[in-house]
Amino acid sequence: xxxxxxxxxxxxxxxxxxxxxxxxxxxxxxxxxxxxxxxxxxxxxxxxxxxxxxxxxxxxxxxxxxxxxxxxxxxxxxxxxxxxxxxxxxxxxxxxxxxxxxxxxxxxxxxxxxxxxxxxxxxxxxxxxxxxxxxxxxxxxxxxxxxxxxxxxxxxxxxxxxxxxxxxxxxxxxxxxxxxxxxxxxxxxxxxxxxxxxxxxxxxxxxxxxxxxxxxxxxxxxxxxxxxxxxxxxxxxxxxxxxxxxxxxxxxxxxxxxxxxxxxxxxxxxxxxxxxxxxxxxxxxxxxxxxxxxxxxxxxxxxxxxxxxxxxxxxxxxxxxxxxxxxxxxxxxxxxxxxxxxxxxxxxxxxxxxxxxxxxxxxxxxxxxxxxxxxxxxxxxxxxxxxxxxxxxxxxxxxxxxxxxxxxxxxxxxxxxxxxxxxxxxxxxxxxxxxxxxxxxxxxxxxxxxxxxxxxxxxxxxxxxxxxxxxxxxxxxxxxxxxxxxxxxxxxxxxxxxxxxxxxxxxxxxxxxxxxxxxxxxxxxxxxxxxxxxxxxxxxxxxxxxxxxxxxxxxxxxxxxxxxxxxxxxxxxxxx
Length: 576
What we know:
Number of strands: 17
Radius of gyration: 23 Å
Number of helices: 20
Strand content: 5-15%
């Protein structure tokens, strides 16, 4: 979720004045943490998942569903208890209570569609929204390709009420246009963090899991609708990426650099740009922009090249939120300035040093998953990734391919029905049996020459379930690992049900959530094949989703046969 400090937030001009101060002390804080815990060993596996969701209000009399803006009031109750939808964010009157957008300069978002009252009440989020817009120099511009159904106009071009001309310039033909951070950060997601036994193991897992991110993103696809339209994508990732893209026109390469220090190739919410382990170094084929002074400071502070360039790359960004009470800090015992930059680089993977003076160890966060309709599905995806980390470490597996190919995979993963139609670059030989382990990863005695024959295009079915003579499959490898473990019958039964869901989603026997949502809309009697999700369609869809989530209605095409709730109580595991 990121750093949620309390205090008096500064506006962008005030924050900008302290940007170098935050970076300078953030690096000092990181160095202090690193040297305290760099030799820490033998931390046990702990893991915790994070589900980001929405609160909804059902008006059964009017057959309408709205986003409920009472999260702060019921937060404590929700924390003591334990869902995912697209309830038409940005459509007229989509909130309860109803607020109208006010696209005024003094507002946080200046959005034509998203009222500021719909922004999370914590000051971090309205400040993020406003400061991203001010730093960028213009409103956020999100353009998602619309699904070109039979009765949609061609080209599809919207005209917007209250537009001062900015939306008309920013929108693209045949695209759904959105203009606020809430359209991205308002999406639901599923994330999981693992504690590693050491820093070297954390770096190894970070690299290996980075190659898995596009695969699991496509497998968990659940976001096909935006602003009341059917889109031609299935995942939210690119939408969130655009929703927090604070780069100026110069940094995006649209204008010559006169005021900006760097050209920056990606939004601060995107895929990783460099591997961290020794084995990953030769696959770092992306051009990496770094802060040279910070890199030098880190190297002089005893940080190796790969980790130093990773941190120096994150720190090309400015802080986006800063509180007046948290400017001057104790760099030995606090890490807010480091986390200020670290936690606003929202990448597919996150490498997380221990907090100061904490029992928590080195961690990695796996961030690309889409949240599902039921606890069972969410548990299945989380358990699959957790087991995959155990297999990677136990068998010293090697999934590494050039990072440019991982980026290509991420683009494919977001496309409509990518799980069945997409082809993904994946490593053919993942076993390095008998090779020594160096810095947590398996390498040959003489090194490995970068060879395009190391990887090839595979379907997700092949990657997950295997194909004879091509690839062994991740689930067969996990099953082999489990056969050698002492697991009680009930736990093994639950695990097998989780893996069965993943296996059948990968093969296409079961639908992804995105595919199921599309089919519901396409089959609805009110749908006019115009790519519009009407109020009635939306109500019926969310009602059915709610019933499925609560176990009141089965959905065999999505989940398969019914599963016992007792077998998948969510959240009863160690957290970090």
